[in-house]
Design a protein that fits this description.
The structure is a homotetramer of 360-residue chains. The first copy, chain A, has 360 residues and is α+β, with helices and mostly antiparallel strands. Chain A has eight helices and 24 strands. Chains in contact: A-B, A-D, B-C, C-D. At the C-D interface, α6, β13, α7 and β15 of C face α6, β13, α7 and β15 of D. β3 of chain A pairs antiparallel with β1 of chain D, so a sheet runs across the interface.
Amino acid sequence: MQEMTGQADTPELVQLYRDFEVNSMAPLWTQRDDLMPMVPSPAAVPHVWRWKTLFDIAERSGELVPVGRGGERRAIGLVNPGLPGTAYVTPTLWCAIQYLGGYETAPEHRHSQNAFRFVVEGQGVWTVVNGDPVRMSRGDLLLTPGWNFHGHHNDTAEPMAWIDGLDIPFSNYTDVGFFEFGSERVTDEASPQTSRAERLWAHPGLRPLSGLDDKISSPLSAYRWEHTDRALSEQLALEDEGYPATVEQGHAAIRFTNPTTGGDVMPTIRSEFHRLRAGSQTAVRHEVGSSVWQVFEGSGTVLLGGVEHRLDKGDLFVVPSWVPWSLRAETAFDLFRFNDGPIIDRLGFTRTYLPSKDDR
Amino acid sequence: MQEMTGQADTPELVQLYRDFEVNSMAPLWTQRDDLMPMVPSPAAVPHVWRWKTLFDIAERSGELVPVGRGGERRAIGLVNPGLPGTAYVTPTLWCAIQYLGGYETAPEHRHSQNAFRFVVEGQGVWTVVNGDPVRMSRGDLLLTPGWNFHGHHNDTAEPMAWIDGLDIPFSNYTDVGFFEFGSERVTDEASPQTSRAERLWAHPGLRPLSGLDDKISSPLSAYRWEHTDRALSEQLALEDEGYPATVEQGHAAIRFTNPTTGGDVMPTIRSEFHRLRAGSQTAVRHEVGSSVWQVFEGSGTVLLGGVEHRLDKGDLFVVPSWVPWSLRAETAFDLFRFNDGPIIDRLGFTRTYLPSKDDR
Amino acid sequence: MQEMTGQADTPELVQLYRDFEVNSMAPLWTQRDDLMPMVPSPAAVPHVWRWKTLFDIAERSGELVPVGRGGERRAIGLVNPGLPGTAYVTPTLWCAIQYLGGYETAPEHRHSQNAFRFVVEGQGVWTVVNGDPVRMSRGDLLLTPGWNFHGHHNDTAEPMAWIDGLDIPFSNYTDVGFFEFGSERVTDEASPQTSRAERLWAHPGLRPLSGLDDKISSPLSAYRWEHTDRALSEQLALEDEGYPATVEQGHAAIRFTNPTTGGDVMPTIRSEFHRLRAGSQTAVRHEVGSSVWQVFEGSGTVLLGGVEHRLDKGDLFVVPSWVPWSLRAETAFDLFRFNDGPIIDRLGFTRTYLPSKDDR
Amino acid sequence: MQEMTGQADTPELVQLYRDFEVNSMAPLWTQRDDLMPMVPSPAAVPHVWRWKTLFDIAERSGELVPVGRGGERRAIGLVNPGLPGTAYVTPTLWCAIQYLGGYETAPEHRHSQNAFRFVVEGQGVWTVVNGDPVRMSRGDLLLTPGWNFHGHHNDTAEPMAWIDGLDIPFSNYTDVGFFEFGSERVTDEASPQTSRAERLWAHPGLRPLSGLDDKISSPLSAYRWEHTDRALSEQLALEDEGYPATVEQGHAAIRFTNPTTGGDVMPTIRSEFHRLRAGSQTAVRHEVGSSVWQVFEGSGTVLLGGVEHRLDKGDLFVVPSWVPWSLRAETAFDLFRFNDGPIIDRLGFTRTYLPSKDDR
């Protein structure tokens, strides 16, 4: 406001600003445009992490750092370069690569934070969710919604790595998290192909009569690659046959849902899978809320805030709020995505903008 | 009320009752206990129809009665003996056996009434829902929610019969129905294994990004037997392994749902599938609302208002509101059920009563 | 279908139709166009009842017929001439004039059926809802949602009459009703100006912290005329000032709501109040569902299915489903309306049609 | 993790940690217990601000700092001492004292952030919300939900101060905010007693038929003190008469609601008013989410995390997440409260704990 008036500080004004500080006050007028920008201007920045690098570092951690009670997980978070000093990939989301050596166990615990795992390669680990062992294999999405006990154990001699997604930053920021330690070893060391949750819930359009109460998070712990793959293939095939099925030309996509409501899998995290035909390109989109993407298969590029990045299998990138993005597929191109969409939608802040080609 | 007072009718009273009539009025006090009974006392009665009889009659209709514009369908409704003069199986529900000869077509039309088909045996017919051909095979539930164009055509030389369920009585009673004729022949005579609706929607827990708007009825036109069967088998297997999964000991059941909401497939009709182990028996239940059941496989009995009926494959029975029912399985026993549960639930009239064994 | 084929009945066909009947079956094709008309074609017909007549007959009933246990209420239902043999004003709704002599009591009971009272003139009666005495005065809407005990007592020497609205026909038809007798006299004979329900709930936009659970029916037992009147006056005043507030030019209206949800007051019954400026006229409307109107003040006409009826204070009329209606106000014209809108809306049958002027 | 192993750092480990940093990664194991505490352990701390001090400083700002385009408002935020460098009273909420001199105007703008004003004393200002002038008087709650244009102007020669509550910290943190400048002067300088929003919506249980679409925020811009006061008085009177109405003995409370849904007034901010009888005391409560309270009238104390603070009219205090609080009333004690309850509830993090007396 001094700036606004252009006047020199008077002793009274100096005293006033001193009194603000002494009395735990701060004027709006000196920070209004930072606090309330014309459009979202996130501190978080777009960034790409290479899977090769992540995996190499995770592997070395596997040799050098034990996993166990206290640290709980051999998980290494992606740090958004715009949010230094944290391990946050966006203001709301955590994304880590987790690594478990042959026959290792990550002990059981539970927390308010919602979590999932997505497997870009490998197999051999079972995550045990409330005593239900859930196989982890390439292409699978595995859920551990808030306050479910969970641990992981590697049933093979081969190490395995995957990504974890959680709402740790959001929970930490809003002070909503509780944590409780559980069993040192997983409570069920069996390694079934199919979890009990899937046996009850993974039947299209069917709901057990013993499970008629709606749940805030999906009771289906595992979304298998075979189903995701088929759903995406069918969308493109329908498009070929001339029927509406895709998001836009050459761009198939599904959202993972809670079968008790049809809504998002967890109250704070949305997850989706996208498939682009070779040669296709998505429209440029600005969206409120932040997303993390991982390439599952194929290669292409992402245009992120005007800068193009090449992407290969396993590479991860982050799209902060309102940063325009567009994907281009060189080969057939499969990508997993998660974001804070449910937070944005439930609190009424949803906004999307697709500039017309002339605007760009 | 005269009864209440025990007095002889005075001329004034006679005149009063005459004036009620002349002026389109009727007193509550003479009919209160009929209109507002202590518990529901339906005019509809429990009844069993034999599949053998129904099929034989349908077959003869196939020989004697053409199908086509005007009559629209070779469908023969089950008449509840307590509702004579109608073709209503319950006050809210219609249930018919429909029969289509080799290469016959039932023309397209649409109506506000919600409809489904359930196939207890046979195959070869495709129902075309808004231009999407949907194969009909044993064990499948096929939906045609209100105001979707639909017709059926038999792609084979063999006749086929199935049951239709609709809310015709409810719609007729409440005066909500619209009707529109469509194409004389089905608009797509293809006979694919899988409908386009299934290709988009029949993936467990997955939703196309092109279909994020919730719908009042399920967009999934077909619920295939293979999924229903597997879901029920898994519930019994989980029970065997000691986990909660069934409704009660030996009694597995699923509800068919709208994947956009997790709720019932259509706003007026609920549908379920039940499986009992050989030798098991369900608790006696009183429920508000009326149900129709069809035996899909196996044999057993139903206790309906205290009377036991033997049941074999294809047999249908009706349970009017609040009539106590219990199933007993001689062999493994599979039954399809539909009822007016969504009407009851959405309007706040839900009530269930399980008498303790001592009460019975 | 015989008609369709134009052929004479063969012995086989005669036998077939006989077998339908013997086996509790009925063909769709002979009744399809009655069961499923092109547009709703209700049995119920438009009709007008004169308040003067109703009141006179109610008064004579007051002299000749006692009120008490068994008959329960001195209520005389309006019989729709298209639904003879019932006391139904529409297929779903009951409307009666109820009359209570000086110091009389209508005993307490409860039932699943939802009920309200609306007072076109008079005062002096308290309806006691779950032990809470609720004053009844001109212009007030008083609720007794399903399964709340209620009785009425006249605290004065003067008789009083009002109208009752219930979902008795709907409940009877769908077999959902339970009934229970309560106290012979009302459980609280106090006659406060303001009920406890109002003291808790009748504060605009405010909700007691002790009442945060949503309820299927409104917890507010009384909607007072002073509020309704003011709301309608303000709408017309805003219109005068050039702001959008009315339904259409000269036509103000409010809906009574459940403050816990903002939705209808009860799960089966909608109620509204309409005010027309002198000289104004509403557009012609076709609506799915049936309505009952009562003139509260002023005079005018209603065009009902093309026939015009004059209306004065207290007169009631019924609009069956899809019958076009339009109101014309001679003087300032106030009308109360109730209908089965929540049934229609919740079950997905809502449809409205306003013919353009050229169509009429 | 070094701690976990107790081993000295090897060169490989040093290199690993260096590579984490270089590659924008950070291990979970060194920060897990900070990120995911056993119970919420907010950085924000309990704190009390004195109204006398706030008002004095605001008054001096009124003399020294102009109000106008750019700074937009003469609002001074309360800085939580645990969140230095911000102007956040909690991680999610902003609370400021705003001051407007005689005949001054704060220009119009709109933003995604949801806002309200609460008036502890004074009068004379109108806030103009989307062109609708809303009087501000002692005890009133005034809403400006996200993306509504709003400005304020003082219609008198006397200055006026009030508190603003917004979700600025939440919006800033999650990067969801848009901002747009509007008119320099308010678009309607009239000073009516009653806003158009109130004329349409402030009628208990009534909804305009022209406003049947639900809204994410309340369409009622003003909640007047006379209604709040009466609602609270009635609760205590009902308690006196022996009926359940209060939250606990001697503690009346209302929540301000959106009349279209019965839910919170805005998607991110809950507001309530509490009244304690002289001498009464609330149970100790731990709640997830953060609250700000302002004393409206009377005096008493608050026990905040075990420390007792005296409170007088206008004093504000903050309760961070999970910090136990209890109020004690010396005189009759009225308090306004707002918090981030809708965020907590809609995202599934709600938890409350009332220690038994023995636990304390």
